[in-house]
């Protein structure tokens, strides 16, 4: 397994960011492709009802992924700073504790949700009509969530260990396996949504095992370290995990934003437009993780550079890295917005035939929905910066703004004013308000310093 040697304190920050960004972006998009590929095959093999059923299940997966991102981001920040101070053993212990923790917190609720699958499907908002498909998808998909959370955490660590290309390959292999198995299970074998769930589970298992093998046997610095079985060791582990979670809490809130967006959006679309509305929103929701992962890739590419130099006190390198990250966020946001505004029919047609009701609703809504993507990506990058320099409070507050404080009221109020158009504009309005708050906070801090 090839590893790159990357000096985070001396190499030009633009070169460093480029080395991290392109493999990270490709890897992130590949991970998002796992559920999107399910949607494409289910859309053509089952129909818009299958897409709606899968979309109802996805918010729970987002929560699990969010826990992984929270621990992964926190662990990566802590390990970066420890490495910059030469504390290799402490960095390894933090990595081991993080992976053990996420294993426990994913296995226990997964088992409970499989036992109570009916209640879980109802809790997620399944209608009587969609309930059988939602249950079927859950029962075959839930076992993979432990592998998903392993991947979410370990990719942070693998990149920090100097192997961003390996992190990218781990995600690419997962996506490729999923494509092959989705086609096999849905079309030749005709297993429908169950086939899509089983394909995702097997592909995520492959990616998770690759990541674990690397960290156990091949990591250059951040390989697993044995934990002592003592009360003192347990207390130390709890303290370290708590600190990692506190630093990475905004990453969990970022993923929770997607879960809230999908969950509340499903309820509002069901109320105003029925099952076809949920189907239309479901098509849109397959693209949201891609946009999220663009912002996440920018934040995660900047994070090891910022955190390592933060540990050394190199303020200029930190500022330069954040300028590059924000510029990249704006450029990427403009490109994504243009694609959704100019090519909605093409994007919807990847999932379903464009002549049905759900497809027509999605085509009409895409241009409105995409207005917020520039702000969406910029906000993720800004929150990632605060997280990287251990400024937990602003990172958490702004994550709460975009995910709860502005988003939920927007979903409840805008449809009453603008009708169906208001549902599509809820996310953009929330992101614009959050971006304005971040800009105001930045100007206030700058004025205070002067």
From TrEMBL:
<dbReference type="GO" id="GO:0015297">
    <property type="term" value="F:antiporter activity"/>
</dbReference>
<dbReference type="InterPro" id="IPR002528">
    <property type="entry name" value="MATE_fam"/>
</dbReference>
<keyword id="KW-1133">Transmembrane helix</keyword>
<feature type="transmembrane region" description="Helical">
    <location>
        <begin position="245"/>
        <end position="265"/>
    </location>
</feature>
<keyword id="KW-0472">Membrane</keyword>
<dbReference type="InterPro" id="IPR045070">
    <property type="entry name" value="MATE_MepA-like"/>
</dbReference>
<dbReference type="GO" id="GO:0046677">
    <property type="term" value="P:response to antibiotic"/>
</dbReference>
<comment type="similarity">
    <text>Belongs to the multi antimicrobial extrusion (MATE) (TC 2.A.66.1) family. MepA subfamily.</text>
</comment>
<dbReference type="GO" id="GO:0005886">
    <property type="term" value="C:plasma membrane"/>
</dbReference>
<feature type="transmembrane region" description="Helical">
    <location>
        <begin position="362"/>
        <end position="386"/>
    </location>
</feature>
<feature type="transmembrane region" description="Helical">
    <location>
        <begin position="277"/>
        <end position="299"/>
    </location>
</feature>
<feature type="transmembrane region" description="Helical">
    <location>
        <begin position="398"/>
        <end position="417"/>
    </location>
</feature>
<keyword id="KW-0812">Transmembrane</keyword>
<feature type="transmembrane region" description="Helical">
    <location>
        <begin position="53"/>
        <end position="83"/>
    </location>
</feature>
<keyword id="KW-0046">Antibiotic resistance</keyword>
<feature type="transmembrane region" description="Helical">
    <location>
        <begin position="193"/>
        <end position="217"/>
    </location>
</feature>
<feature type="transmembrane region" description="Helical">
    <location>
        <begin position="137"/>
        <end position="159"/>
    </location>
</feature>
<feature type="transmembrane region" description="Helical">
    <location>
        <begin position="423"/>
        <end position="445"/>
    </location>
</feature>
<dbReference type="Pfam" id="PF01554">
    <property type="entry name" value="MatE"/>
</dbReference>
<keyword id="KW-1003">Cell membrane</keyword>
<dbReference type="InterPro" id="IPR048279">
    <property type="entry name" value="MdtK-like"/>
</dbReference>
<feature type="transmembrane region" description="Helical">
    <location>
        <begin position="95"/>
        <end position="117"/>
    </location>
</feature>
<feature type="transmembrane region" description="Helical">
    <location>
        <begin position="20"/>
        <end position="41"/>
    </location>
</feature>
<feature type="transmembrane region" description="Helical">
    <location>
        <begin position="324"/>
        <end position="342"/>
    </location>
</feature>
<protein>
    <recommendedName>
        <fullName>Multidrug export protein MepA</fullName>
    </recommendedName>
</protein>
<keyword id="KW-0813">Transport</keyword>
<feature type="transmembrane region" description="Helical">
    <location>
        <begin position="166"/>
        <end position="187"/>
    </location>
</feature>
<dbReference type="InterPro" id="IPR051327">
    <property type="entry name" value="MATE_MepA_subfamily"/>
</dbReference>
<dbReference type="GO" id="GO:0042910">
    <property type="term" value="F:xenobiotic transmembrane transporter activity"/>
</dbReference>
